Task: inverse folding
């Protein structure tokens, strides 16, 4: 497959981005994984919400319900983790799940909900993509972004231009023609969005959220007028139930990370110094192809980090050859012409140093107990050794479990010394081992826990 490097340029052509309407759109996180499929790990720290985030009743997108919205900068208690989600508890004792990328650790105390405005997520969902006009004030216009359900104030044509520049979705000429022809599946997916004709001069169109009709947005002021003409009147009391955000605060990556409709699920394995990647699309297409981004830090981005570009919208695999020893992070994204749209989950692959691939001479001491909640807590210490590639914690219904072969948890953090196991019953046996890449080196003692 031909790999092409393209440096942006289409953004400058998007001068006509200006809003006009309403609609639906979708959100994203890797929803390929079933709810509660992975074990939950106990956590105990305070976390601060980095951008207004939905609190869900389960750690996944497609099957979960939104409990409420946590305001930006709110501090909550993080009590568990599962597959990229944090289980959290607020000051009132309410628990739920939030995407881990939207929470950062803090020393600040848990904050009260006092004074926070309630948010009607149902109303926001119904008005996704609409232009709302404050009929009880002076006709101020607001756009409800279909991607994240926040409302954005449309002060004037310049503001409308900024909204379109930041929130416009690139579309190929072929798909634009399908929209004009009212192809139902595409219209339903893009209602309320602003689309940019990236294969031409970045012409902007608004997809009416009700009829699916396209409105051409020639420039910022014309788009502003189109938006007002297509607007829906709303009372102040209803508008206050839709959370607002400043246009400049909008982060397309964070917004798509909480997108319940569209997602990309990425997996990867190592074959020697070669990384083999594969992905699936959920409720979406990517007509302009994909960027596969790689870096030595988490959550690589385009533009910014090293990448492979594939123009084939049907491609679902990639390979990175001859990687040196080290830790690599990968993501794949929907390419929108000069920028990425929906990102996949972040995966981490470690290419071992062959010098580190021999068994150590030291030992590992493992201890464990079962707490009142029935969770097995394990702790270990290293004696005269290190384990640079991390640890495998193996469990079985027989003594001396091994890897590969028995159930395990893998930790790439060489400094980690604790693990937890839940949803077990009866007698279980545990060992932790030095991970050497595909096999174990030094094993700890065998311990027995009764659940």
Result:
């Amino acid at each position: 497959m031909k790999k092409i490097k393209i440096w942006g340029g289409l953004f400058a052509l998007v001068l006509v981005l200006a809003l006009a309407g309403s609609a639906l759109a979708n959100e994203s996180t890797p929803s390929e994984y079933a709810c509660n499929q992975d074990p939950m790990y106990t956590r105990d720290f305070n976390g601060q919400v980095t951008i207004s985030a939905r609190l869900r009743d389960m750690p996944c997108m497609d099957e979960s319900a939104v409990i409420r919205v946590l305001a930006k900068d709110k501090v909550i208690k993080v009590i568990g983790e599962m597959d990229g989600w944090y289980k959290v508890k607020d000051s009132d004792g309410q628990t739920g799940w939030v995407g881990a990328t939207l929470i950062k650790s803090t020393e600040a105390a848990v904050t009260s909900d006092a004074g926070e405005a309630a948010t009607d997520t149902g109303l926001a969902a119904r008005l996704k993509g609409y232009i709302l006009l404050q009929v009880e004030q002076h006709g101020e216009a607001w756009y409800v972004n279909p991607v994240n359900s926040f409302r954005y104030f449309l002060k004037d044509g310049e503001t409308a231009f900024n909204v379109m520049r930041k929130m416009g979705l690139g579309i190929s000429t072929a798909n634009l023609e399908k929209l004009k022809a009212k192809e139902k599946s595409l219209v339903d997916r893009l209602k309320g969005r602003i689309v940019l004709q990236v294969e031409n001069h970045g012409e902007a169109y608004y997809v009416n959220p009700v009829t699916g009709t396209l409105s051409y947005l020639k420039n910022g002021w014309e788009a502003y007028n189109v938006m007002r003409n297509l607007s829906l009147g709303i009372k102040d009391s209803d508008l206050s139930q839709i959370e607002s955000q400043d246009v400049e605060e909008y982060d397309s990556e964070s917004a798509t990370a909480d997108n319940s409709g569209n997602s990309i699920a990425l997996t990867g394995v190592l074959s020697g110094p070669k990384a083999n990647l594969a992905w699936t699309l959920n409720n979406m297409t990517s007509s302009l192809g994909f960027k596969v981004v790689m870096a030595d830090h988490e959550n690589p981005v385009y533009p910014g980090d090293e990448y492979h570009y594939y123009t084939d919208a049907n491609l679902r695999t990639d390979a990175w050859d001859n990687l040196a020893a080290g830790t690599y992070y990968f993501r794949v994204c929907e390419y929108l012409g000069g920028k990425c749209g929906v990102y996949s989950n972040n995966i981490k692959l470690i290419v071992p140093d062959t010098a580190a691939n021999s068994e150590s001479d030291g030992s590992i001491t493992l201890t464990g107990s079962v707490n009142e909640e029935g969770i097995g807590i394990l702790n270990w210490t290293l004696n005269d050794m290190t384990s640079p590639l991390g640890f495998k914690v193996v469990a079985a219904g027989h003594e001396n479990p091994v890897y590969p072969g028995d159930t395990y948890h893998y930790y790439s953090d060489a400094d980690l010394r604790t693990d937890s196991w839940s949803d077990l019953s009866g007698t279980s046996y545990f060992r932790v081992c030095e991970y050497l890449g595909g096999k174990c080196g030094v094993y700890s003692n065998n311990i027995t826990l009764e659940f």
Summary: Residues 1-34, 114-120, 253-260 have pLDDT under 50 and may be disordered. The radius of gyration is 25 Å. Helices lie at 121-126, 157-167, 173-180, 184-190, 220-229, 236-239, 252-256.
